[in-house]
Amino acid sequence: MRIEDGRLIIDGHLCDELAKEFGTPLYVLSENRIRHNYRAFQEALARIYPNVLVCPAYKANWHLAVARIYQMEGAGAEVVSPAELKLALESEVEPEKIVYNGPLKKFEDLEFAISSSVGLINADSFSELKKMQEAARRVRKPCNTGIRVNLGMRAETHPHLATALREHKFGIWLGDAITAYTLAAKNPDLSVIGIHSHIGSNITQSQVFSEMSASMFRLVGQINDATGLKITKIDMGGGLGSSYQVESSAMTYEEYAAAILSQNMLTLRQLGEPTLVFEPGRAIVADAGILLTRVDVAKRQGDINWAIVDAGMNTFLRPALYQAKHHVVAANRASEPRTVSFNLGGPCCESGDVIAKGIISPMLKEGDLLAVLHVGAYGFSMASNYNGQPRPAVVLITGTKSELIRRRETYEEMIAGEMIPSHLSKQF
Ligand code: LLP
User: Fold this and answer.
1) What gap in Å lies between CA 191 and CA 145, rounded to an integer?
2) Which residue has the higher pLDDT, 281 or 250?
């Protein structure tokens, strides 16, 4: 991104022209950035330990075009629903490279995943292990099984984004892991090959990743010894944070790779050089996306300046849900002195519908264009129709091209699933 004559430019495209052509609110994704990030992440790990499989988390960004970019880069996929699994398969991701996670998988979803030869299905509970076995028997194919272990580890992040303490719903508790593997090992329908942990999201300290990897590799040794199994896929989850604010810095990919790998090379050799699976979401796509939004109303309440913009919690939920702070740039006046404090409210009838509080900007006027940065992860994927708002359009920038990869929803699309029982239908 750069600024020329006060106008924000992303990958050579003027933001105000994109907004004019495609309307606002508008997500803009950079193909170049996604590819660059994916490669840099993969290479940072593979330079230290070659047997690495990167499976981007589709929940962060599940556009078909993005899934194709990942597939073309040779990535796997981390999916948590039958729809995400279909998306990966339709994008021609090799089934062997797909990891299926999540706290709830319905029986028919497991049948679908097993019959599609998904490379790793991570059980989240004892009862799911049993369901996996039954589904495998039903479809007459072994289930490539892993177990998500809750390691009991505190990750410094927003409380909603931590996942690996006893109070969290995820996985099988560390103290029960050997019992779970011993049970699973006895089952001929389960091909027990993996282990999984995901300690949380948006983590910016490396220490907890070092502790997590040491704990995982120790546990794999114990499992192999206690059960006679050979764990060949160790799935380290996602969680690497992003620098949402210019002043807050996340780890580099290299620091992350070193935290996970550098103390463990000998152990990995002793474990037979298993495949290490990584499930980055935010780390690959967050900084590949911006959200363009128009100031429709500028007003003052006492001494507070408000700009009401056309992107709200329905478009971008992170600020309302996690009090997330994203950098905002006045895209058409980016070189002007920033002298005034503004709150940016969205179109929804909720006081919490505030995209940013106290941003320092030029005096905003109706018609100004703003760019919210680092929204490529958990942006569109958490958008909703709340307050009858259509989900926004999404544009992909590829070199000199800018193409719609998702059109703005229409009223007809928004209500397509609605039905009126006959006793309520209109009388003609
Ligand atoms: N693997 C598993 C099993 C996960 O549950 C997640 C995210 C990931 C990988 C990817 O995590 P990442 O690398 O992006 O941290 N909506 C929230 C984030 C929720 C993350 C849920 N799980 C946000 O906007 O911050």
Assistant:
1) 6
2) 281
Task: Please tell me the predicted confidence (pLDDT) of residue 311.
Answer: 98
Q: Answer whether 141's CB lies under 8 Å from 152's CB.
A: no
Q: Which residue has the tokens 């052509």?
A: 21
Q: Is 356 helix (H, G, I), strand (E, B) or coil?
A: strand
Q: What is the pLDDT of residue 337?
A: 95
Closest to 150 (Cα-Cα) out of 163, 139, 140 = 163
Query: What is the 77 CA–ligand 1 centroid distance (Å)?
Result: 13
Helical H segments across 163-317, by residue range: 177-185, 207-227, 253-261, 265-270, 282-285
- Model confidence at 248: pLDDT above 80: no
Report the alpha-carbon angle 95-100-106, nearest 5.
Answer: 115
* CB-based pocket (< 6 A), ligand 1: 57, 59-60, 78, 101, 161, 198, 201-202, 237-240, 279-283, 318, 322, 377-378
Contact in structure between 344 and 356 (CB atoms under 8 Å): yes
How many Cβ atoms sit within 10 Å of the Cβ of residue 154?
12
Question: Do 209 and 203 contact (CB within 8 A), yes or no?
Answer: yes
| Mean pLDDT estimate for the chain | 96
Distance CA 359, CA 372 (A): 11
* Distance separating alpha carbons of residues 109 and 106, to the nearest angstrom: 5
Coil, strand, or helix at residue 294? strand
Tokens of 266: 């000998």
Distance in angstroms between the alpha carbons of the first and the last residue of the chain:
57
Task: Determine the pLDDT at residue 233.
Answer: 98
Residue 382 Cα: closest atom of ligand 1? 16
CA of 248 to the centre of ligand 1 (A): 19
Task: Name the residue type at position 221.
Answer: G
Please, which pLDDT band fits residue 247 given cuts at 50, 70 and 90?
low
Residue 378, phi-psi category: left (phi > 0), alpha (psi -120 to 50), beta (remainder) = left
Task: Check residue 161 and give its pLDDT.
Answer: 82
CA distance 37 to 402: 20
Strand order in the sheet with 7-10: 2-4, 7-10, 13-14
pTM of the model: 0.97
Cα–Cα dist 104/127, whole Å? 10
Q: Is the pLDDT of residue 228 over 70?
A: yes
Judged against a pLDDT cut of 80, whether residue 428 lies above it is answered with: no
Q: How far is the CA of 245 from the centre of ligand 1 (A)?
A: 19
Q: What's the rounded Cα separation, in Å, for the pair 214 and 264?
A: 7
